[in-house]
Each structure stands twice: as C-alpha cells, then as structure tokens.
Amino acid sequence: MSRTYDDLVREAATASVDGWDFSWLDGRASEERPSWGYARLLGERMAGAGAALDLQTGGGEILAGVPELPPVTVATESWPPNLKLAASRLRPRGAWVVADDDEPRLPFRDGAFDLVTSRHPVETWWEEIARVLRPGGAYFSQQVGPWSVAELTHYFLGPHDGSSRDPDRARAAAESAGLEVVDLRFERLRMEFRDVGAVIYFLRKVIWIVPGFSVERYADRLRELHDRIEAEGPFVAHSSRFLIEARKPGGPAA
What we know:
Elements: H1 5-14, E1 29-31, H2 38-47, E2 51-54, H3 61-64, E3 72-77, H4 80-90, E4 96-99, E5 113-119, H5 126-132, E6 133-144, H6 150-157, H7 167-176, E7 180-193, H8 196-205, H9 219-232, E8 235-247
Parallel strand pairs: 2-3, 2-5, 3-4, 5-6
Antiparallel strand pairs: 1-7, 6-8, 7-8
Helix pairs in contact: 1-8
C-alpha cells in the first residue's frame, strides 16, 4: 500500500539535510553516475600529492573515502553543521579542517599546494586557485553543468536560465587565470524521483535547484506532483556534470 501524501511530506520535511550524503534517498530516487569515476581519479591524484587542498568539502564524505591522503591535507567548508561533520571524519586521518566563507581571499599563502580539488563547488575562484597552487600543480574538480535537473526547476519556477555553469566558460576562466586545461569532459545523466518525499528532500539539500524552496510555498505544486507520480510513475530529470583538470605552468607535474 502506498504511503499517503501527508506521511511522505512530513518525513521528508523533517529529515536532516546536513552533510553531502544522499543515502536517505536510497530506493526512493536514483541518479546515473559519470563514467569517469571522480572518487577513483581523486584518489589517484591525492596519492601523488605532497600538499592538497579540498575546497568546499561539505561533510568531508568524498575526501574521507580517499585511500591515501597526502602528508599535508587541508579541507575548507563554510556551513557550521558541515564543518562539524567534516572534522569528525577528517581530523582522525590527520587532515586540517578550516572554516572559510567560500569567498576570496583563500586563507593560504601563495604556492602552498601542489593539488587543489573540489567536488560540486558553488563557485570556482580561479584566480585564488592559481595563486595557492605551486608551479606544476593542478586543480581537479567535478562540477555541476548547465541545465542540471532543469526539469524540476521548470516544474516549480517555470522557464528558467540554467546555462551559466558551462564547461566552456570554465575553460575560459581557468585560462584567464593562467592555468592550462588538460582535461575537460561533460555528461548528462538520468535521474528518477519515485515519490514526492524524495523531491522535497532533494530540494531542501540542493538549494540552488529551486531557490527559496519550502513545502509551504509550493504546497499546491507538490500535491500535483504526488498525484502525477502515483498515476504515471517516477518523475524523470537529468543532471549534468563536467570534469575539469587544469595545471599551473612551470615546475614538475603534481
């Protein structure tokens, strides 16, 4: 027997959205993963680094999964609940966790790191990344691409421009900061939301998909979406991701 709309809403509206762990959605939503395997590639690059900086680390979930951290590993995060989670995961492994507001200037000296990484950054401060990289060092990042989950944005907000997170713009910005882009890949990936609670949880956690989202504000559209899923099956959307790797000229490769 399917759960009622009120039950689904109540559960999703009160679930914790701290950190960057989406396991609450297991069995309720799914998303294809990029073919390149960011976590594996990150582990390979971390194993060869002497000093690494992970920007906007969230709850430290991805970095904590790296088999071998560099001798000097620093992670930054701005949101206090995530800082606490990141510290609990990363400090036992010898990593430093630094509170930072995700705005320039980064609180590190010039040329401090031979590897800077970030998974799904809200903003990429290319000039600052170039400043803190050593010559020959690299920036390695998986980012949200254009029109990601646009189907949900359009459902709640109507026609909306989601094209700003473009990989070609990222390339141009990296090159403008003096970095050389050595890898750039892009994929669109199928997502399915199997109940309205999954949609609510996702939008509470990934706040830029529908800015200002709340259950109260979108009660009518949520009720309609529940009825649609019950009648037609999962709500289908598509995320977009791109992988970018850029090196700072000079010196040995990181």
